[in-house]
Amino acid sequence: MTVHPTALPGLDHIAGKADAILERQRARESSARTYARSFPIVPARAQGMTVEGTDGRHYLDCLSGAGTLALGHNHPVVLEAIQRTVSSGAPLHVLDLATPEKDEFTDALFATLPSGFADRARIHFCGPAGTDAVEAAFKLMQTATGRRGLLAFTGAYHGMTAGALAASGGVAAKEPVPGIAADVTRLPYPYAYRCPFGIGGERGAELSASYAERLLDDPNGGVVPPAAMILEAVQGEGGAVPAPDAWMREMRRITAEREIPLIVDEVQTGVGRTGAFWAVEHSGVVPDAMVMSKAIGGSLPLAVLVYHEDYDGWLPGAHTGTFRGNTLAMATGTATLRYVAREGLAERAASVGARMTARLESLRAELPAIGDVRGRGLMIGVELVDPGAAPDACGARPAAPQLAAQVRAACLDRGLIVELGGRFDSTVRLLPPLVITDEQVEAVLDRLTDAIAAVTASQFTGVQV
């Protein structure tokens, strides 16, 4: 299935310039650019889930700014908040001074927090990226405990600044930075399809918890008392891998009994993405700190750290930054938080996500390149494998990164933007906006199915996709 170009009224002045723009980007931007390599398009306009390129093509966006766009592109409540704030004459940059917009955002955010957390919480406004909020969380807990070490997990992703990168699981970005993870103890994350213990299922998760507890209590285990544990309730860049609720509760018990602060990274999972407003709510866990960014800014840059007041031992200026007072982002964030709560979009994410996952799961027999389908709410992963290879002890076949890259390209050809993640970049990740319509759900599933079928057929027949 090929999506044919259609005219874009009002874009005549840039039509046909996409190739030149892309060439200038390649010549002037760093070799670290990522999404620009995966999607050689030039977006010119966007509305909801639809992105329109300068070449006149329309795409359904299942990347959503890596989960940032809870309401999709240019949602009316977001645009209204921007226009209202700009028209009001409010200062757009005020460092960390109090403003009505900040006060209103804090009210809106605290109203969504898990029961038992908001009542004694403090908020710190960080630099505008989630990675800075992760750094702030580490510094806060190191200050409060007087310790240095961190507990983090295989498959994790927390950002690209030094501390966040050290706590992340990916090896490639850390290899050029000697000693970056010296203070991090890596624990096995429960990943049923590729279980670190070769068992999978509930037993694999139980072993993960048991391993962590025994390691921390072993006087010869090599782990000095850590400053904190950081985890994701659903690993995002790790391939949409959800942690079992019972395992989450075990991590809370283990850390609480040993007076180890628990930090939950909700940068990608927050604001309804997983079918609850915050992913920790599925398990009933109340952490000591939550790191938030992406969707909380309503598409504009904003990151905060919310934590229990008992840890508030910082001196003034202990974690500062120029762009902590983004008034526009606070206004759009308030509008987004309230809209998601008012319209029940977390509940819709749960039901729509379950429907999408069920349909994708039903395709496994028909499309054996689909090794695993998993996720929570509208945070879905489809892991692609080599269907001709022998499975391991858990029934998992070898990852197929080349096939996954071909599927991503085939999706783009069909007007669907999806990105890869997980081990070996072999998992197709679906992060549609929470406002996705039923019609768009069907279109996404049809295009993805068609892309996987076409790519796998070409692997065996030689027919071009």
What features would you describe in this structure?
- This protein has helices at 18-28, 35-38, 64-67, 76-88, 100-110, 130-145, 162-167, 201-217, 245-257, 327-342, 345-362, 401-413, 438-461; strands at 43-47, 50-53, 58-61, 121-125, 150-153, 184-187, 228-231, 234-235, 241-242, 262-265, 289-292, 304-308, 370-376, 379-384, 416-417, 419-421, 427-430.
- The longest helix has 24 residues, at 438-461.
- It is of the alpha/beta class.
- The strands form four sheets. The protein has a seven-stranded mixed sheet. Strands 1-2-3-15 form a four-stranded mixed sheet. Strands 13-14-17-16 form a four-stranded antiparallel sheet.
- It contains 13 helices and 17 strands.
- The chain starts with 17 loop residues before the first helix and ends with a helix.
Question: What is this structure's SSE topology?
Answer:
Blueprint (H helix, E strand, L loop, with lengths): L17 H11 L6 H4 L4 E5 L2 E4 L4 E4 L2 H4 L8 H13 L11 H11 L10 E5 L4 H16 L4 E4 L8 H6 L16 E4 L13 H17 L10 E4 L2 E2 L5 E2 L2 H13 L4 E4 L23 E4 L11 E5 L18 H16 L2 H18 L7 E7 L2 E6 L16 H13 L2 E2 L1 E3 L5 E4 L7 H24 L4
Helix pairs in contact: 4-10, 5-10, 8-9, 11-13, 12-13
Concise overview:
The protein has 465 residues and is α/β, with parallel strands linked by helices. It has 13 helices and 17 strands.
Taken in chain order, the helices and strands follow as HHEEEHHHEHEHEHEEEHEEEHHEEHEEEH
What is Rg? Answer: 22 Å
Lateral strand order in the biggest sheet? 4-12-11-10-7-5-6
Main beta-sheet annotation: 7 strands, mixed
Task: List how many beta strands DSSP finds.
Answer: 17
Give the overall average pLDDT.
Answer: 93
Number of DSSP helices? 13
Tell me the structural class.
alpha/beta
Backbone shape: globular
Query: Which regions have little confidence, pLDDT < 50, spanning 5+ residues?
Result: 1-8
Q: Which percent bin holds the helix content?
A: 25-40%
- Please report the distance between the alpha carbons of the first and last residues: 10 Å
Question: Percent of residues in beta strands?
Answer: 5-15%
